[in-house]
Amino acid sequence: MRLLLYLSGLVLLVAAATWAYRVNYATQATLDRVAALRHEIARLHEAVSVLEAEWAYLNRPDRLRALAEIHGPRLDLQPIAPEQFADPDEIPFPTAEVALPGGENE
User: Fold this and answer.
1) Segment 91-105, tens digit of pLDDT
2) CA distance 5 to 44
3) What is the 3-state secondary structure (H, E, C) of the chain?
4) Which of 28, 48, 50, 92 is surrounded by the fewest CB atoms within 10 Å?
5) How far is CA 83 from the centre of its chain?
6) Which of 80, 50, 82 lies closest to 65 in space, CA to CA?
7) Where are the domains of the chain?
8) What pTM was estimated for this model as a whole?
9) What does the alpha-carbon distance between residue 80 and residue 97 come to, in Å, rounded to a whole number?
């Protein structure tokens, strides 16, 4: 009877050790994945910051004004006038159902 108790205790100990071993390595793998994701997030944040700086540099008003002056005649660009803006109440919105091309109405 004692032998059976010792053997079952040993089997239980081996099973618990195996479970703890697997949980430990799964936890380590998850922590490594979290560290890799944090590194990737930091890299992407830096890339976004660089792109925002480039966007700000390319959208400088003086640069855009110079480009408009250079390419304006070829593209027939004209300055915006206040008369070109409309009140939203003046915009004619369709009141009836509009037929979609191809006969696909939902």
Assistant:
1) 887 777 767 776 555
2) 58
3) CHHHHHHHHHHHHHHHHHHHHHHHHHHHHHHHHHHHHHHHHHHHHHHHHHHHHHHHHHCCHHHHHHHHHHHHHHHCCCCCCHHHCCCHHHCCCCCCCCCCHHHCCC
4) 92
5) 39
6) 80
7) 2-74
8) 0.54
9) 34
- Tokens 């032998």 belong to residue: 3
Place of tokens 């006038």: 81
Token pair for 33: 């994945």
Q: Return the structure tokens found at 80.
A: 């915006």
Structure tokens of 56?
């700000």
